[in-house]
Write a structure and sequence with these properties.
Strand content: 5-15%
Structural class: alpha+beta
CATH class: Alpha Beta
Shape: globular
CATH superfamily: Glutaredoxin
Number of helices: 10
CATH architecture: 3-Layer(aba) Sandwich
Strand order of the largest sheet: 1-3-2-4-5
CATH topology: Glutaredoxin
Length: 224
């Protein structure tokens, strides 16, 4: 018969043990993904292809929106956090919500915890929930990345947003999901010349200017 005498402390210890076991299980793909993110397999920009929206992509915005913005990001990347916390909101309000642009988010994890956070985001039910989770992870980036154990912090963020420990463990051990994130990163590196985060593509062209909303707004207006 199951016992229900666990204390909060012992439950956290069990969560920590589960999270560490699953880091080991997913760890075999992480060096490969990290190498791709570091640009070890990257094509030169001169020969890089132009990314197009894929059926597997997470997309927010109207399908008919004339402008497509694609971002490759790592959830532990401070510059990515700054973009999402200080630019993305205005970009969404003025371009995505108004039907002028659609926004695609792609994973490019730079380290183990970024990879695990990417898996957490993929545990969500649909694109709307996915972008909410991405937003939460960037908003709380300073807390969970600096926690004494980021693994436990990610478990708690998941639970606070409706993803149970059991669901998270299922996602962590989903080899197809893990391979998909690693593949997305590798393709970004080898085919599109992604070698840092965040990397933005607007209408298939790498955007290498200021990522403030004011600068992006000026640039996007030239495409209208």
């Amino acid at each position: 018969m199951k016992s229900y005498s666990d204390t909060i402390s012992s439950m956290k210890v069990k969560k920590l043990a589960i999270s560490r076991r699953n880091f080991i299980k997913t760890g075999s793909v992480l060096p490969f993904a990290a190498a791709a993110a570091a640009g070890l397999f990257s094509a030169t920009d001169a020969h890089a292809a132009k990314p197009q929206i894929l059926q597997s992509d997470h997309v927010i915005g109207f399908p008919t929106a004339p402008i497509t913005i694609i971002e490759y990001a790592s959830l532990t990347c401070g510059h990515c956090g700054n973009f999402h916390n200080f630019t993305y909101g205005d970009l969404k309000k003025n371009y995505v919500d108004s039907g002028k642009a659609k926004f695609v988010y792609r994973h490019f994890p730079l380290d183990r915890f970024a990879f695990i956070a990417a898996i957490l985001s993929e545990c969500t039910s649909d694109d709307s929930a996915f972008f909410e989770m991405i937003g939460t992870l960037f908003e709380q980036q300073g807390e969970w990345t600096r926690a004494s154990d980021p693994a436990l912090a990610l478990i708690e963020i998941g639970e606070q947003n409706g993803i149970s420990l059991e669901q998270f463990v299922t996602c962590l051990t989903d080899q197809e999901l893990v391979d998909g994130i690693a593949s997305e990163s590798l393709i970004g590196s080898t085919q599109f010349g992604v070698d840092s985060t965040p990397t933005l593509f607007i209408q298939g062209e790498k955007y290498q200017r200021d990522r403030s909303f004011e600068a992006m707004d000026s640039y996007l207006k030239t495409l209208a």
